[in-house]
Amino acid sequence: PRFTENQIMHNTTGGGDAGYGGGLSLTGRVWVEGNTILGNRAPGLTIAEGGGVRIASSAHFTLTNNIIARNAVSITGSGVVIGYSYGGRIAHNTIAANLDGDGAGIYIKGNTDVSLVNHIIVSQTVGIVNATPATIQVLADYTLFDGNGSNTSIGVISTHAVPDPAALTADYHLSSVSNAIGHALPLAWVRRDIDGDLRPIGLPDVGADEFVKSLWLPLVLRQHP
Questions:
Q1: Which has the closest alpha carbon to 174: 115, 130, 214?
Q2: Which residue from 36, 83, 197, 213 has the fewest beta carbons nearer than 10 Å?
Q3: 3-class SS at 71?
Q4: Does the reported pTM lie above 0.90?
Q5: What angle do CA 88, 96, 77 make, to 5 degrees?
């Protein structure tokens, strides 16, 4: 199944004892790209995972070019939970202000190493959590962290970190002063951003949005006698 170019907003799943994936709860070989996943909730008294997205028991999945913001969970993984999954292409997501519960932007558990590339993670209690550091390695490459309580937990290796500021707009796109512009690792398989704009434009940008500079041309009027 492919979930592309949707607005998944203000949903609530679960309640009672368990809640999984306030916006999406997926298993299998799934493709999630170009979605805005905003303001969803996953409440649960004993088990609650993934305020925005939960991907579990999945193989060769894609999670790319999504804005995942202002989601909430009562226990684990306020933004995203990835559990017991392998072969994931996880790149160019913007994760912002997913709170309540543990306040984790991305929460990873299981027994397969995971790589995250070209992410923006801002305003989280913890940016990336490795819940099983004794058994898996989580690599975060070319990540822009900004305004988090802590950026990573034990068992997360951050390489080529991109300095802040993220300088996001109100809809979680890049403003002209964002340091995400031009600082991503080029990925040949990522050719568009969340808005369908070409990626890269020059050097690629970190996060879901590729900044497009507006060009205003003067209007020239010819006067005729």
A1: 214
A2: 213
A3: coil
A4: yes
A5: 55
